[in-house]
Design brief:
There is one protein chain. The chain is α+β, with helices and mostly antiparallel strands. The chain is built from eleven helices and six strands. It has one domain: Outer membrane efflux proteins (OEP). Helix content is 66%, strand content 14%. The strands form two sheets. The protein has a four-stranded antiparallel sheet with strand order 1-2-4-5, with no helix packed on it. A two-stranded antiparallel sheet has the order 3-6. A hairpin with a 7-residue loop joins strand 1 and strand 2. The chain is elongated.
């Protein structure tokens, strides 16, 4: 197994083992990942599959090591012997025998190829496990910040309801004193009813997001640390070509596909070597007692060098070689397909991260502008220069700006993790770097 392909998986594994057990309710991103790492069934399945695959090497090696066997038997026999001058012999007797044999492979081309093939199969399984671990880290990050975003949107929905409720009460009061109009009251009532429905939807959104995270951690969801203020950050380095090159080199999916291609090449060679001669060294020691002639025993030992050469097997060898060659061509195409997928995913994640920086800055400016506009419209309404419809529309625009800001605020962090995962470079240090941005005092 090549050591240079394992650090991302081992870094995640070692960090989880060092940090150890965590409380029942996850608070930070790292704690949520620890819980998911210890309980995720998909990851457990990948670990078990690698453990099973690791046995391929000793299984292949066993064909090259000595095989020792023993046998024993006891029986009751009858004999009727004629042809001797003394007359026929009729006799019943007991017999017993035992033997020990040892066989050592001297030359077996297929066995050596199978041993080489076992290494590449283990590499493929190790890469699959690494990919599963990295995808789990991405899923946990997405689910964790999905909960935080849902909670932030619920907070905005509560603010919307409170804001529209105050506007409705103000509008209703002006109607009662004769300075308002019924149309404005009904419009305010309709906006308030919609806000109440939005609040119900936002609360449900929190519940769904929490269950999505709980599905990964298999633990009750406690109070999560929220994101504090942070500076938007684009790709580092800001070079798409370098990210794609790193992805093609580091992405576990590429390692898995390449190992599977090598396994296919080895299978072609394995099938070709079915034509090769096989040489074994065999030794046997045997004891046999019991025959029609009393007191006769046989003890023998011997060593032999055995050669077997297959000449014709009904076309099986040729067909198996052609089949393996066709599978190798398919594996070559699979590597190309995976490379295209990894390249596209990395390019998309790179551009999404760059876009997230601009989106967050724009959303922040829009939210600040909408807040100023709302305050100005409220004052204008109080002095009679703006209508209640203007105030309601400005309030709606302000709430929408707040919602868009929440989306951009959390999407920027997720986009960072997505680029790392797409390039196959995500590790515990990345999760800890994001975790360092959390601040339990920043909860709404």
């Amino acid at each position: 197994m090549r050591a240079d392909r394992l650090p991302p998986r081992l870094s995640l594994l070692m960090a989880v083992l060092i940090l150890g057990a965590t409380p029942a309710g996850a608070e930070s991103l790292v704690e949520a990942y620890q819980q998911a790492y210890q309980t995720d069934p998909t990851l457990a399945q990948a670990r078990a599959e690698l453990s099973a695959q690791m046995q391929d090497k000793p299984l292949a090696r066993s064909a090259l090591l000595p095989h020792v066997g023993a046998g024993a038997g006891v029986g009751f026999n009858t004999a009727d012997i004629t042809g001797f001058g003394a007359g026929p012999i009729n006799r019943a007797y007991l017999s017993d025998n035992y033997s020990v044999n040892i066989t050592q492979s001297v030359f077996d081309g297929q066995a050596w190829t199978a041993l080489k093939q076992a290494d590449t199969e283990i590499q493929a399984s190790a890469a699959a496990l690494t990919y599963t671990e990295q995808q789990l880290a991405l899923k946990v990050a997405q689910a964790y910040f999905g909960v935080l975003e849902a909670q932030a949107q619920k907070h905005v929905a509560e603010k919307q309801k409170s804001l529209l409720e105050s506007i409705y009460k103000q509008t209703d009061a002006t109607l009662k004193i004769g300075t308002g109009d019924i149309i404005a009251v009904r419009e305010a009532q309709a906006r308030l009813d919609a806000a109440k429905a939005d609040l119900i939807k936002a609360r449900n959104g929190v519940a769904v997001a929490q269950r999505r995270l709980q599905r990964l951690t298999h633990h009750p969801i406690g109070v999560l640390d929220n994101l504090g203020h942070y500076e938007a950050m684009g790709p580092q380095p800001d070079d798409m070509t370098r990210w794609v090159q790193s992805a093609v080199k580091d992405q576990p999916l590429m390692h898995q596909a390449e190992a599977q291609l090598q396994t296919a090449h080895d299978q072609v060679e394995y099938n070709r070597r079915a034509r090769w001669p096989v040489v074994n060294l065999q030794g046997i020691a045997q004891h046999s007692l019991g025959s029609p002639f009393p007191g006769m025993a046989l003890n023998q030992a011997g060593v032999s060098l055995n050669l077997s050469v297959p000449f014709y097997q009904g076309g099986h060898t040729s067909a198996s070689v052609q089949q393996a060659q066709a599978q190798t061509i398919a594996s070559v195409d699979h590597v190309a397909s995976v490379r295209d997928e990894v390249t596209l995913n990395t390019q998309t994640a790179f551009l999404n991260l760059k876009d997230s920086v601009a989106q967050l800055r724009a959303a922040k400016e829009t939210a600040a502008s909408a807040k100023v506009s709302l305050e100005g419209t409220r004052k204008g309404y109080e002095v009679g220069t703006r209508s209640i419809i203007d105030l309601l529309q400005t309030a709606t625009d302000y709430i929408r700006a707040e919602q868009n800001y929440n989306v951009a605020f959390y999407n920027q962090i997720i986009a960072r993790v997505q680029l790392k995962a797409a390039s196959g470079q995500i590790n515990m240090a990345d999760l800890e770097a994001v975790n360092a941005l959390l601040d339990n005092s920043a909860n709404p």
